[in-house]
Design brief:
By secondary structure, the protein is α/β, with parallel strands linked by helices. The chain has eleven helices and ten strands.
């Protein structure tokens, strides 16, 4: 999910098809150049590497994986290169076209198939998977987490894993950044219950924010919580990457604190995202 977002605001429920189409159009609009600022963003790559390492620790090469909200396929291609078999899905048809082209360019199309399928459409997907992953917040755009959990339980074998990177409620850098500018409403946007309207490229992404255990509660019937950790707790969020680039050495020290301490109680509930691992019972 693109974090270079504009103003956010709370809106009334319930979720409807119009909002799903709004989100689809937002990501279609940025697909052509999506890998530019994101692909070269050091803070994004740090979080991406943590996701890759976690999936690798949970599931051996050769496993069959489902990617929810694959974007342009950076993660899917990485796993396919390392011997995984990946079904990459996204609600944006333009993102799926980018993923297919990337798979061909990388020579991994025999291990990677890309399908135009929204997270709310998982009931249309068949087959069995060893694990499901989702990176950078696509699940924050899912209108019904309980329905997602039900479908993941159907698709994932017993003992299989879910590895999800989700946008959390408590981002210390974001709170400080906007509070110092007296933009208190923007500083507290993640704390509100319900869906929020987040602007991107002149479009709207409809978004929910979660605490880790609040997120797991939707999956608890079928999945045991294995672990979770904060991502970018001490480091700023990716949309502040210019700060990092001015003083990379100093920020790398903060990054090492993230690596060492992000799993600890209290800190693991903070950060731009949290990385949560669950196991199918």
């Amino acid at each position: 999910m693109n974090r270079h977002a504009e103003a956010s605001q709370a809106v009334p429920e319930p979720f409807d098809e119009t909002r799903l189409l709004d989100t689809q159009r937002a990501f279609d609009s940025v697909a052509p150049d999506y890998d530019g600022p994101r692909g070269n963003n050091e803070l994004i790559q740090r979080m991406r590497t943590t996701m890759w390492n976690t999936v690798g620790a949970e599931l051996p090469a050769g496993s069959r994986l489902l990617d929810l909200g694959c974007g342009t396929g950076l993660d899917a291609v990485e796993f396919a290169r390392h011997g995984y078999h990946v079904v990459a899905s996204d609600w944006s048809p333009e993102m799926i076209e980018r993923t297919r082209a990337r798979a061909v360019e990388a020579g991994v199309e025999s291990r990677l198939s890309a399908v135009h399928l929204g997270i709310q459409q998982l009931h249309l997907l068949g087959g069995r998977f060893d694990g499901v992953y989702s990176n950078f917040g696509p699940l924050n755009c899912a209108p019904d987490l309980h329905a997602v959990a039900h479908e993941c339980a159907r698709l994932v074998r017993p003992g299989g894993s879910l590895v999800f990177s989700v946008m959390g409620r408590i981002c210390p850098w974001e709170l400080g950044h906007y509070a110092l500018r007296r933009r208190f409403r923007r500083a507290g946007v993640r704390f509100g219950k319900g869906v929020r309207a987040v602007g991107m490229n002149g479009h709207t992404i409809w978004t929910w924010y979660y605490m880790p255990r609040e997120f797991h509660a939707a999956f608890a019937e079928h999945f045991t919580l294995t672990s979770y950790r904060g991502l970018s707790v001490f480091l700023p969020p990716p949309y502040m990457v210019d700060r990092y680039r001015r003083h990379p050495g100093w920020y790398e020290r903060l990054g090492r604190m993230d690596d060492r301490l992000g799993h600890l109680p209290v800190l693991r509930d903070m950060g731009d995202h949290f990385l949560i691992v669950m196991q199918r019972r």
